[in-house]
Amino acid sequence: MSDTRPIRRGPYPELTWPGVLVGYLLGSLIALSIGYASLKLGFSIEGSELAAILGFGILRGLMGRSSIVENNINQSLASSVNAASSGMVFSLPALFILDYTDFNIPLTVLGCMAGAVLGIAFIIPLRKQMIDFERLPFPGGIAVAAILKSPGAGMHKAWLLVAGAVISGAVHAVSLATHWDAVPLGSWIGMPDYMNGVWYLSLMTVGVGFLSGSGGLFFVVGGYVCYWMLAPILNLQGLLPSAQELETAGMGMARYLQSSLFRPVGIGMLIGGALTGVVLALPLMFNAVRSMHQASKTQSAVSRDELPIRALYIAVVAAFGVLLTISELAVPGMTLWRGATMAVLGTLWIWMAGVILSECIGRTNWSPLSGMTLIAITILIFVGSGLGDRQTVMAAVIVGAAACVAMSQATDLMLDLKTGYLVGATPRMQQIAQLLGSWIGPILIMWLLFWLHKDSPLGGEKYPAPQGQALASVIQGILGGDVPTQKYIAGAGLGALLSTSGIGGLGVLVGLGFYLPFDIVLTYTIGTVLRLGLDRWKGSAFSEDVGIPIAAGLIVGEALIGVGSAVYNVISSGGGAG
Q1: What is the dihedral of CA 572, 574, 575, 577, to 10 degrees?
Q2: In angstroms, rounded to a whole number, what is the distance separating the alpha carbons of residues 197 and 518?
Q3: Per-residue pLDDT averaged across 303-313, rounded?
Q4: C-beta separation of 222 from 510 below 8 A
Q5: What is the pLDDT of residue 270?
Q6: For the segment 489-522, what is each residue's pLDDT rounded down to a tens digit?
Q7: 506-526: burial string, b at 16+ Cβ within 10 Å, e else
Q8: CA gap 407, 367 in Å, rounded
Q9: In angstroms, rounded to a whole number, what is the distance separating the alpha carbons of residues 200 and 182?
Q10: Helix, strand, coil shares of the chain as percentages rounded to 5?
Q11: Stated pTM of the model
Protein backbone atom coordinates (compact mmCIF):
# COMPACT_ATOMS: atom_id res chain seq x y z
CA MET A 1 0.00 0.00 0.00
CA SER A 2 1.54 3.32 -1.05
CA ASP A 3 1.95 6.26 1.32
CA THR A 4 -0.42 9.03 0.12
CA ARG A 5 0.77 11.65 2.58
CA PRO A 6 2.05 14.83 0.89
CA ILE A 7 5.82 15.25 0.68
CA ARG A 8 6.99 18.16 2.84
CA ARG A 9 9.30 20.65 1.22
CA GLY A 10 11.16 23.44 2.99
CA PRO A 11 11.83 23.86 6.71
CA TYR A 12 9.73 22.09 9.31
CA PRO A 13 7.48 24.23 11.56
CA GLU A 14 9.46 25.40 14.58
CA LEU A 15 8.41 28.50 16.56
CA THR A 16 4.64 28.15 16.02
CA TRP A 17 1.55 29.12 17.99
CA PRO A 18 0.67 25.47 18.74
CA GLY A 19 4.20 24.85 20.04
CA VAL A 20 4.13 28.00 22.18
CA LEU A 21 0.64 27.46 23.64
CA VAL A 22 1.30 23.79 24.41
CA GLY A 23 4.58 24.89 26.00
CA TYR A 24 2.73 27.28 28.31
CA LEU A 25 0.21 24.60 29.26
CA LEU A 26 2.79 21.90 29.97
CA GLY A 27 5.22 24.33 31.60
CA SER A 28 2.55 25.45 34.06
CA LEU A 29 1.61 21.86 34.84
CA ILE A 30 5.24 20.80 35.34
CA ALA A 31 6.21 23.90 37.36
CA LEU A 32 3.42 23.34 39.88
CA SER A 33 4.17 19.60 40.09
CA ILE A 34 7.92 19.91 40.52
CA GLY A 35 7.58 22.94 42.82
CA TYR A 36 5.27 20.92 45.08
CA ALA A 37 7.60 17.91 45.02
CA SER A 38 10.61 20.13 45.80
CA LEU A 39 8.92 21.51 48.91
CA LYS A 40 8.25 17.95 50.03
CA LEU A 41 11.56 16.30 49.17
CA GLY A 42 14.12 19.11 49.16
CA PHE A 43 15.47 18.77 45.62
CA SER A 44 14.26 19.48 42.11
CA ILE A 45 14.23 17.44 38.92
CA GLU A 46 14.64 18.57 35.32
CA GLY A 47 11.36 19.22 33.49
CA SER A 48 12.58 19.02 29.88
CA GLU A 49 12.07 15.27 29.56
CA LEU A 50 8.56 15.52 30.99
CA ALA A 51 7.71 18.31 28.54
CA ALA A 52 9.11 16.38 25.58
CA ILE A 53 7.07 13.27 26.41
CA LEU A 54 3.82 15.15 27.02
CA GLY A 55 4.48 17.35 24.00
CA PHE A 56 4.42 14.29 21.77
CA GLY A 57 1.11 13.26 23.28
CA ILE A 58 -0.52 16.61 22.50
CA LEU A 59 1.24 17.90 19.38
CA ARG A 60 1.54 14.56 17.58
CA GLY A 61 -1.16 12.42 19.18
CA LEU A 62 -4.02 14.92 19.52
CA MET A 63 -3.12 17.56 16.92
CA GLY A 64 -1.47 15.37 14.28
CA ARG A 65 1.67 17.52 14.02
CA SER A 66 4.98 15.81 13.23
CA SER A 67 7.75 18.40 13.53
CA ILE A 68 10.51 17.40 15.95
CA VAL A 69 11.84 20.95 16.15
CA GLU A 70 8.37 22.26 16.98
CA ASN A 71 8.23 19.85 19.91
CA ASN A 72 11.71 21.06 20.82
CA ILE A 73 10.32 24.61 21.06
CA ASN A 74 7.45 23.33 23.21
CA GLN A 75 9.94 21.56 25.47
CA SER A 76 12.26 24.60 25.70
CA LEU A 77 9.42 26.96 26.60
CA ALA A 78 7.90 24.54 29.10
CA SER A 79 11.21 23.96 30.87
CA SER A 80 11.73 27.75 30.98
CA VAL A 81 8.45 28.09 32.87
CA ASN A 82 9.56 25.32 35.22
CA ALA A 83 12.99 26.90 35.86
CA ALA A 84 11.36 29.22 38.40
CA SER A 85 10.35 26.25 40.57
CA SER A 86 13.81 25.35 41.83
CA GLY A 87 14.94 28.99 41.84
CA MET A 88 12.14 30.21 44.09
CA VAL A 89 11.51 27.05 46.14
CA PHE A 90 15.18 27.00 47.23
CA SER A 91 15.05 30.61 48.49
CA LEU A 92 11.71 32.26 49.25
CA PRO A 93 10.41 29.63 51.74
CA ALA A 94 13.04 30.99 54.16
CA LEU A 95 10.92 34.16 54.50
CA PHE A 96 7.84 32.10 55.33
CA ILE A 97 9.76 29.99 57.83
CA LEU A 98 11.09 33.15 59.53
CA ASP A 99 7.57 34.67 59.44
CA TYR A 100 8.73 37.55 57.22
CA THR A 101 5.70 37.39 54.92
CA ASP A 102 5.02 41.13 54.65
CA PHE A 103 7.34 41.58 51.66
CA ASN A 104 6.09 43.21 48.45
CA ILE A 105 4.72 40.30 46.43
CA PRO A 106 4.28 41.96 42.98
CA LEU A 107 7.79 43.41 43.08
CA THR A 108 9.26 40.09 44.21
CA VAL A 109 7.58 38.32 41.28
CA LEU A 110 8.79 41.07 38.92
CA GLY A 111 12.30 40.65 40.32
CA CYS A 112 12.26 36.90 39.64
CA MET A 113 11.11 37.63 36.09
CA ALA A 114 14.00 40.08 35.69
CA GLY A 115 16.38 37.50 37.09
CA ALA A 116 15.15 34.98 34.53
CA VAL A 117 15.86 37.44 31.70
CA LEU A 118 19.31 38.16 33.11
CA GLY A 119 20.17 34.48 33.34
CA ILE A 120 19.11 33.88 29.74
CA ALA A 121 20.89 36.99 28.45
CA PHE A 122 24.18 36.21 30.17
CA ILE A 123 24.37 32.59 29.03
CA ILE A 124 23.44 33.00 25.35
CA PRO A 125 26.89 34.30 24.29
CA LEU A 126 28.44 31.08 25.66
CA ARG A 127 26.37 28.74 23.47
CA LYS A 128 28.84 28.40 20.64
CA GLN A 129 31.82 27.96 22.95
CA MET A 130 30.27 25.35 25.28
CA ILE A 131 28.27 23.39 22.71
CA ASP A 132 29.90 23.94 19.31
CA PHE A 133 33.57 24.22 20.32
CA GLU A 134 34.03 22.48 23.70
CA ARG A 135 31.17 20.04 22.96
CA LEU A 136 30.26 19.56 26.61
CA PRO A 137 28.13 16.43 26.94
CA PHE A 138 25.08 17.80 28.86
CA PRO A 139 23.70 14.28 29.60
CA GLY A 140 20.21 15.62 30.28
CA GLY A 141 20.11 17.33 26.89
CA ILE A 142 21.18 14.12 25.16
CA ALA A 143 18.38 12.19 26.91
CA VAL A 144 15.73 14.67 25.75
CA ALA A 145 17.11 14.61 22.19
CA ALA A 146 16.74 10.82 22.18
CA ILE A 147 13.03 11.21 23.00
CA LEU A 148 12.51 13.80 20.27
CA LYS A 149 14.19 11.58 17.69
CA SER A 150 11.88 8.62 18.36
CA PRO A 151 8.32 9.76 17.59
CA GLY A 152 6.74 6.33 18.05
CA ALA A 153 8.41 5.83 21.39
CA GLY A 154 7.42 9.37 22.34
CA MET A 155 3.70 8.61 21.93
CA HIS A 156 4.04 5.36 23.85
CA LYS A 157 5.80 7.20 26.68
CA ALA A 158 3.09 9.87 26.74
CA TRP A 159 0.39 7.27 27.36
CA LEU A 160 2.47 5.63 30.09
CA LEU A 161 2.98 9.00 31.76
CA VAL A 162 -0.75 9.75 31.71
CA ALA A 163 -1.49 6.30 33.15
CA GLY A 164 1.00 6.87 35.96
CA ALA A 165 -0.56 10.26 36.71
CA VAL A 166 -4.08 8.82 36.90
CA ILE A 167 -3.00 6.02 39.25
CA SER A 168 -0.95 8.32 41.48
CA GLY A 169 -3.65 10.98 41.61
CA ALA A 170 -6.32 8.41 42.53
CA VAL A 171 -4.20 6.88 45.30
CA HIS A 172 -3.38 10.28 46.76
CA ALA A 173 -7.02 11.38 46.62
CA VAL A 174 -8.02 8.28 48.60
CA SER A 175 -5.16 8.91 51.04
CA LEU A 176 -6.33 12.49 51.64
CA ALA A 177 -9.98 11.46 52.00
CA THR A 178 -9.23 8.71 54.52
CA HIS A 179 -6.37 10.58 56.29
CA TRP A 180 -4.34 7.40 55.90
CA ASP A 181 -1.00 8.65 54.66
CA ALA A 182 1.41 6.26 56.42
CA VAL A 183 1.87 2.53 56.91
CA PRO A 184 3.26 1.64 60.40
CA LEU A 185 4.94 -1.51 59.17
CA GLY A 186 7.64 -1.31 61.84
CA SER A 187 5.21 -1.56 64.75
CA TRP A 188 3.39 -4.45 63.03
CA ILE A 189 6.59 -6.53 63.06
CA GLY A 190 7.79 -5.42 66.50
CA MET A 191 10.46 -2.91 65.41
CA PRO A 192 11.59 -0.52 68.21
CA ASP A 193 10.18 3.02 67.99
CA TYR A 194 13.62 4.59 67.63
CA MET A 195 14.12 2.69 64.34
CA ASN A 196 11.09 4.53 62.92
CA GLY A 197 9.59 1.85 60.66
CA VAL A 198 6.76 4.00 59.27
CA TRP A 199 6.39 4.13 55.47
CA TYR A 200 5.03 7.28 53.84
CA LEU A 201 2.16 6.48 51.45
CA SER A 202 3.27 8.45 48.40
CA LEU A 203 3.65 7.22 44.83
CA MET A 204 5.22 10.60 43.98
CA THR A 205 8.10 9.78 46.32
CA VAL A 206 8.47 6.37 44.65
CA GLY A 207 8.57 8.12 41.27
CA VAL A 208 11.27 10.57 42.35
CA GLY A 209 13.32 7.68 43.72
CA PHE A 210 12.99 5.85 40.41
CA LEU A 211 14.07 8.88 38.37
CA SER A 212 17.07 9.42 40.64
CA GLY A 213 18.27 5.85 40.11
CA SER A 214 21.68 4.98 41.54
CA GLY A 215 22.25 8.62 42.51
CA GLY A 216 19.41 8.26 45.00
CA LEU A 217 21.34 5.65 46.98
CA PHE A 218 23.32 8.36 48.75
CA PHE A 219 20.13 10.09 49.89
CA VAL A 220 18.81 6.75 51.15
CA VAL A 221 22.05 6.02 53.02
CA GLY A 222 21.69 9.21 55.10
CA GLY A 223 18.33 8.12 56.51
CA TYR A 224 19.38 4.55 57.26
CA VAL A 225 22.52 5.74 59.04
CA CYS A 226 20.36 7.88 61.34
CA TYR A 227 17.69 5.43 62.39
CA TRP A 228 19.12 1.99 61.78
CA MET A 229 22.70 2.67 62.89
CA LEU A 230 23.05 5.76 65.10
CA ALA A 231 19.74 5.33 66.96
CA PRO A 232 20.49 1.71 68.00
CA ILE A 233 23.98 2.79 69.13
CA LEU A 234 22.47 5.58 71.24
CA ASN A 235 20.05 3.04 72.72
CA LEU A 236 22.85 0.62 73.65
CA GLN A 237 24.71 3.45 75.38
CA GLY A 238 21.61 4.56 77.27
CA LEU A 239 21.58 8.00 75.62
CA LEU A 240 18.02 7.98 74.30
CA PRO A 241 15.48 10.19 76.11
CA SER A 242 13.26 8.64 78.78
CA ALA A 243 9.50 8.25 78.48
CA GLN A 244 9.06 11.21 80.82
CA GLU A 245 11.28 13.42 78.63
CA LEU A 246 9.29 12.42 75.57
CA GLU A 247 6.03 13.19 77.36
CA THR A 248 7.34 16.61 78.35
CA ALA A 249 8.41 17.28 74.76
CA GLY A 250 5.01 16.09 73.51
CA MET A 251 6.35 13.79 70.80
CA GLY A 252 7.32 10.21 70.11
CA MET A 253 10.85 8.82 70.06
CA ALA A 254 11.36 8.96 66.28
CA ARG A 255 10.10 12.52 65.98
CA TYR A 256 12.17 13.62 68.96
CA LEU A 257 15.34 12.20 67.43
CA GLN A 258 14.61 13.89 64.13
CA SER A 259 13.84 17.34 65.55
CA SER A 260 16.53 17.49 68.25
CA LEU A 261 19.43 15.64 66.61
CA PHE A 262 19.23 14.44 63.03
CA ARG A 263 17.52 17.48 61.53
CA PRO A 264 20.01 20.08 62.87
CA VAL A 265 22.95 17.91 61.78
CA GLY A 266 21.29 17.46 58.38
CA ILE A 267 20.89 21.22 57.94
CA GLY A 268 24.56 21.65 58.71
CA MET A 269 25.41 18.98 56.14
CA LEU A 270 23.30 20.75 53.53
CA ILE A 271 25.18 23.99 54.17
CA GLY A 272 28.64 22.45 54.35
CA GLY A 273 28.08 20.20 51.34
CA ALA A 274 26.65 22.98 49.19
CA LEU A 275 29.41 25.47 49.98
CA THR A 276 32.13 22.88 49.43
CA GLY A 277 30.54 22.02 46.09
CA VAL A 278 30.87 25.66 45.08
CA VAL A 279 34.55 25.74 46.10
CA LEU A 280 35.22 22.56 44.12
CA ALA A 281 33.50 24.15 41.12
CA LEU A 282 35.98 27.06 41.01
CA PRO A 283 38.18 25.38 38.35
CA LEU A 284 35.09 25.13 36.19
CA MET A 285 34.52 28.83 36.75
CA PHE A 286 37.99 29.68 35.45
CA ASN A 287 37.32 27.37 32.52
CA ALA A 288 34.09 29.24 31.83
CA VAL A 289 35.80 32.64 31.99
CA ARG A 290 38.24 31.38 29.38
CA SER A 291 35.24 30.27 27.33
CA MET A 292 33.78 33.77 27.55
CA HIS A 293 37.08 35.18 26.31
CA GLN A 294 37.11 32.77 23.37
CA ALA A 295 33.47 33.50 22.60
CA SER A 296 34.19 37.22 22.40
CA LYS A 297 36.85 36.54 19.75
CA THR A 298 34.41 34.60 17.60
CA GLN A 299 31.50 36.97 18.04
CA SER A 300 31.87 38.38 14.52
CA ALA A 301 31.37 34.90 13.15
CA VAL A 302 28.09 34.30 14.97
CA SER A 303 25.40 33.61 12.41
CA ARG A 304 21.96 35.08 12.15
CA ASP A 305 20.74 32.00 14.00
CA GLU A 306 21.66 33.77 17.27
CA LEU A 307 19.76 36.63 18.90
CA PRO A 308 21.57 39.91 18.19
CA ILE A 309 23.97 40.91 20.96
CA ARG A 310 22.41 44.37 21.12
CA ALA A 311 19.10 42.86 22.20
CA LEU A 312 20.89 41.00 24.98
CA TYR A 313 22.57 44.19 26.21
CA ILE A 314 19.18 45.90 26.35
CA ALA A 315 17.74 42.95 28.28
CA VAL A 316 20.59 43.05 30.81
CA VAL A 317 20.25 46.80 31.40
CA ALA A 318 16.47 46.55 31.74
CA ALA A 319 16.64 43.61 34.13
CA PHE A 320 19.29 45.38 36.23
CA GLY A 321 16.97 48.37 36.46
CA VAL A 322 14.21 46.12 37.76
CA LEU A 323 16.53 44.62 40.41
CA LEU A 324 17.45 48.14 41.53
CA THR A 325 13.79 49.11 41.70
CA ILE A 326 13.02 46.04 43.78
CA SER A 327 15.84 46.77 46.21
CA GLU A 328 14.48 50.29 46.65
CA LEU A 329 10.73 49.71 46.78
CA ALA A 330 10.17 46.18 48.06
CA VAL A 331 11.77 46.85 51.43
CA PRO A 332 11.11 49.95 53.59
CA GLY A 333 14.25 51.82 54.67
CA MET A 334 16.48 50.76 51.78
CA THR A 335 18.88 53.57 50.80
CA LEU A 336 19.80 54.24 47.20
CA TRP A 337 23.45 53.22 47.51
CA ARG A 338 22.60 49.98 49.30
CA GLY A 339 19.95 49.18 46.71
CA ALA A 340 22.36 49.92 43.87
CA THR A 341 25.06 47.81 45.53
CA MET A 342 22.65 44.91 45.90
CA ALA A 343 21.56 45.21 42.28
CA VAL A 344 25.17 45.33 41.02
CA LEU A 345 26.23 42.38 43.16
CA GLY A 346 23.12 40.44 42.19
CA THR A 347 23.80 41.05 38.50
CA LEU A 348 27.46 40.06 38.77
CA TRP A 349 26.61 36.97 40.79
CA ILE A 350 24.05 35.91 38.19
CA TRP A 351 26.70 36.11 35.48
CA MET A 352 29.39 34.26 37.44
CA ALA A 353 27.12 31.63 38.99
CA GLY A 354 25.28 31.00 35.73
CA VAL A 355 28.57 30.28 34.00
CA ILE A 356 29.76 27.98 36.81
CA LEU A 357 26.50 26.06 36.97
CA SER A 358 26.33 25.63 33.20
CA GLU A 359 29.84 24.19 33.21
CA CYS A 360 28.93 21.89 36.11
CA ILE A 361 25.74 20.55 34.57
CA GLY A 362 27.39 20.31 31.16
CA ARG A 363 30.20 18.12 32.46
CA THR A 364 28.65 16.24 35.38
CA ASN A 365 24.83 16.67 35.15
CA TRP A 366 24.98 18.07 38.71
CA SER A 367 24.47 21.69 39.74
CA PRO A 368 25.40 23.29 43.13
CA LEU A 369 22.46 25.70 42.86
CA SER A 370 21.60 25.67 46.57
CA GLY A 371 25.18 26.52 47.54
CA MET A 372 25.28 29.42 45.11
CA THR A 373 22.02 30.71 46.57
CA LEU A 374 23.34 30.47 50.14
CA ILE A 375 26.48 32.42 49.26
CA ALA A 376 24.58 35.10 47.31
CA ILE A 377 22.08 35.79 50.07
CA THR A 378 24.77 35.79 52.77
CA ILE A 379 26.74 38.43 50.83
CA LEU A 380 23.60 40.51 50.30
CA ILE A 381 22.75 40.39 54.02
CA PHE A 382 26.15 41.86 54.87
CA VAL A 383 25.71 44.53 52.18
CA GLY A 384 22.39 45.49 53.74
CA SER A 385 23.85 45.83 57.25
CA GLY A 386 22.59 48.98 58.86
CA LEU A 387 18.95 48.29 58.10
CA GLY A 388 16.81 46.54 60.66
CA ASP A 389 17.29 42.78 60.70
CA ARG A 390 13.89 42.17 59.14
CA GLN A 391 14.46 44.61 56.28
CA THR A 392 17.97 43.26 55.65
CA VAL A 393 16.75 39.69 55.39
CA MET A 394 13.81 40.52 53.14
CA ALA A 395 15.94 42.56 50.74
CA ALA A 396 18.66 39.90 50.60
CA VAL A 397 16.29 36.97 50.06
CA ILE A 398 14.23 38.80 47.42
CA VAL A 399 17.26 39.79 45.35
CA GLY A 400 18.76 36.35 46.07
CA ALA A 401 15.60 34.68 44.78
CA ALA A 402 15.91 36.66 41.55
CA ALA A 403 19.54 35.53 41.25
CA CYS A 404 18.55 31.91 41.96
CA VAL A 405 15.90 31.98 39.21
CA ALA A 406 18.50 33.44 36.86
CA MET A 407 20.97 30.66 37.63
CA SER A 408 18.29 28.04 37.10
CA GLN A 409 17.29 29.61 33.76
CA ALA A 410 20.91 29.73 32.59
CA THR A 411 21.51 26.03 33.16
CA ASP A 412 18.12 25.09 31.75
CA LEU A 413 18.69 27.07 28.56
CA MET A 414 22.13 25.62 27.96
CA LEU A 415 20.78 22.09 28.43
CA ASP A 416 17.93 22.81 26.00
CA LEU A 417 20.34 24.34 23.48
CA LYS A 418 22.30 21.08 23.59
CA THR A 419 19.11 19.21 22.76
CA GLY A 420 18.41 21.63 19.92
CA TYR A 421 21.94 21.19 18.60
CA LEU A 422 21.36 17.42 18.37
CA VAL A 423 17.96 17.62 16.64
CA GLY A 424 18.76 20.48 14.25
CA ALA A 425 16.82 23.29 15.92
CA THR A 426 17.53 26.98 15.35
CA PRO A 427 19.25 28.53 18.40
CA ARG A 428 17.51 31.88 17.88
CA MET A 429 14.09 30.21 18.01
CA GLN A 430 14.97 28.35 21.19
CA GLN A 431 16.27 31.53 22.81
CA ILE A 432 13.05 33.36 21.95
CA ALA A 433 11.03 30.45 23.37
CA GLN A 434 13.06 30.57 26.58
CA LEU A 435 12.36 34.29 26.95
CA LEU A 436 8.66 33.75 26.21
CA GLY A 437 8.44 31.19 29.01
CA SER A 438 10.38 33.15 31.62
CA TRP A 439 7.57 35.40 32.87
CA ILE A 440 4.86 32.94 33.91
CA GLY A 441 6.89 30.65 36.20
CA PRO A 442 7.47 33.24 38.98
CA ILE A 443 3.75 34.02 39.08
CA LEU A 444 2.79 30.36 39.42
CA ILE A 445 5.39 29.51 42.04
CA MET A 446 4.60 32.56 44.19
CA TRP A 447 0.93 31.57 44.05
CA LEU A 448 1.88 28.00 44.99
CA LEU A 449 4.00 29.08 47.96
CA PHE A 450 1.27 31.24 49.45
CA TRP A 451 -1.50 28.68 48.99
CA LEU A 452 0.54 25.85 50.47
CA HIS A 453 1.72 28.06 53.36
CA LYS A 454 -1.89 28.89 54.19
CA ASP A 455 -2.79 25.21 54.05
CA SER A 456 0.12 24.24 56.35
CA PRO A 457 3.16 26.39 57.28
CA LEU A 458 6.21 25.93 55.08
CA GLY A 459 9.06 24.32 56.97
CA GLY A 460 6.61 22.18 58.94
CA GLU A 461 5.82 18.49 58.78
CA LYS A 462 3.56 18.65 55.71
CA TYR A 463 5.81 20.86 53.56
CA PRO A 464 9.34 20.56 55.02
CA ALA A 465 11.04 22.83 52.43
CA PRO A 466 14.53 21.54 53.39
CA GLN A 467 16.49 24.03 51.28
CA GLY A 468 14.45 26.93 52.67
CA GLN A 469 14.98 25.60 56.19
CA ALA A 470 18.74 25.46 55.62
CA LEU A 471 18.75 29.05 54.34
CA ALA A 472 16.61 30.21 57.27
CA SER A 473 19.08 28.57 59.66
CA VAL A 474 22.00 30.39 58.00
CA ILE A 475 20.13 33.68 58.34
CA GLN A 476 19.36 33.04 62.01
CA GLY A 477 23.02 32.24 62.61
CA ILE A 478 24.14 35.48 60.92
CA LEU A 479 21.65 37.51 62.94
CA GLY A 480 22.64 35.81 66.19
CA GLY A 481 19.50 33.76 66.66
CA ASP A 482 19.08 30.84 69.07
CA VAL A 483 20.28 27.97 66.89
CA PRO A 484 21.98 24.64 67.73
CA THR A 485 25.34 25.94 66.54
CA GLN A 486 27.40 22.92 67.57
CA LYS A 487 25.16 20.51 65.66
CA TYR A 488 25.23 22.77 62.61
CA ILE A 489 29.02 23.00 62.72
CA ALA A 490 29.39 19.23 63.13
CA GLY A 491 27.02 18.63 60.24
CA ALA A 492 28.75 21.23 58.06
CA GLY A 493 32.09 19.54 58.63
CA LEU A 494 30.66 16.13 57.74
CA GLY A 495 28.90 17.52 54.65
CA ALA A 496 32.07 19.25 53.49
CA LEU A 497 34.08 16.05 53.98
CA LEU A 498 31.60 13.98 51.97
CA SER A 499 31.57 16.57 49.19
CA THR A 500 35.32 16.17 48.70
CA SER A 501 34.80 12.50 47.77
CA GLY A 502 34.56 13.32 44.08
CA ILE A 503 30.88 12.32 43.88
CA GLY A 504 28.92 15.39 42.85
CA GLY A 505 26.55 16.65 45.57
CA LEU A 506 27.26 13.78 47.98
CA GLY A 507 27.26 15.98 51.10
CA VAL A 508 23.92 17.54 50.13
CA LEU A 509 22.29 14.20 49.27
CA VAL A 510 23.33 12.48 52.51
CA GLY A 511 22.37 15.64 54.43
CA LEU A 512 18.86 15.46 52.98
CA GLY A 513 18.66 11.87 54.24
CA PHE A 514 19.47 13.16 57.74
CA TYR A 515 17.10 16.11 57.48
CA LEU A 516 13.93 14.62 56.00
CA PRO A 517 11.54 12.39 57.96
CA PHE A 518 12.58 8.75 57.68
CA ASP A 519 9.17 7.68 56.37
CA ILE A 520 9.95 9.64 53.18
CA VAL A 521 13.37 7.98 52.93
CA LEU A 522 11.83 4.51 53.26
CA THR A 523 9.28 5.14 50.51
CA TYR A 524 11.95 6.74 48.31
CA THR A 525 13.94 3.53 48.71
CA ILE A 526 11.22 1.60 46.87
CA GLY A 527 11.68 3.71 43.74
CA THR A 528 15.46 3.50 43.88
CA VAL A 529 15.46 -0.29 44.29
CA LEU A 530 12.91 -0.68 41.49
CA ARG A 531 15.11 1.34 39.14
CA LEU A 532 18.26 -0.61 39.98
CA GLY A 533 16.39 -3.90 39.65
CA LEU A 534 14.85 -3.04 36.28
CA ASP A 535 18.19 -1.77 34.96
CA ARG A 536 19.76 -5.10 35.88
CA TRP A 537 17.02 -7.53 34.90
CA LYS A 538 15.34 -5.81 31.94
CA GLY A 539 18.09 -3.42 30.82
CA SER A 540 18.43 0.35 31.01
CA ALA A 541 16.51 0.74 27.73
CA PHE A 542 13.39 -0.77 29.35
CA SER A 543 13.73 1.58 32.34
CA GLU A 544 14.00 4.58 30.03
CA ASP A 545 11.17 3.54 27.70
CA VAL A 546 8.68 2.29 30.31
CA GLY A 547 9.81 3.04 33.87
CA ILE A 548 10.76 6.70 33.52
CA PRO A 549 7.49 7.84 31.88
CA ILE A 550 5.43 6.03 34.52
CA ALA A 551 7.58 7.47 37.32
CA ALA A 552 7.16 10.98 35.88
CA GLY A 553 3.41 10.43 35.82
CA LEU A 554 3.44 9.38 39.48
CA ILE A 555 4.98 12.76 40.33
CA VAL A 556 2.55 14.81 38.26
CA GLY A 557 -0.60 13.02 39.43
CA GLU A 558 0.06 13.23 43.17
CA ALA A 559 1.42 16.76 42.98
CA LEU A 560 -1.61 18.13 41.17
CA ILE A 561 -4.01 16.44 43.57
CA GLY A 562 -1.93 17.76 46.49
CA VAL A 563 -2.00 21.32 45.18
CA GLY A 564 -5.72 21.08 44.46
CA SER A 565 -6.36 19.75 47.96
CA ALA A 566 -4.38 22.61 49.52
CA VAL A 567 -6.37 25.18 47.55
CA TYR A 568 -9.64 23.52 48.59
CA ASN A 569 -8.59 23.44 52.25
CA VAL A 570 -7.74 27.15 52.23
CA ILE A 571 -10.96 28.17 50.47
CA SER A 572 -13.17 25.97 52.65
CA SER A 573 -11.59 27.42 55.79
CA GLY A 574 -12.34 30.96 54.61
CA GLY A 575 -8.72 31.84 53.77
CA GLY A 576 -7.19 33.18 50.59
CA ALA A 577 -3.90 33.54 48.86
CA GLY A 578 -3.58 37.26 49.26
Answers
A1: 70
A2: 8
A3: 62
A4: yes
A5: 75
A6: 888 888 888 888 777 667 877 887 887 788 888 8
A7: bbbbbbbbbbbbbbbbbbbbb
A8: 10
A9: 5
A10: 75, 0, 20
A11: 0.80
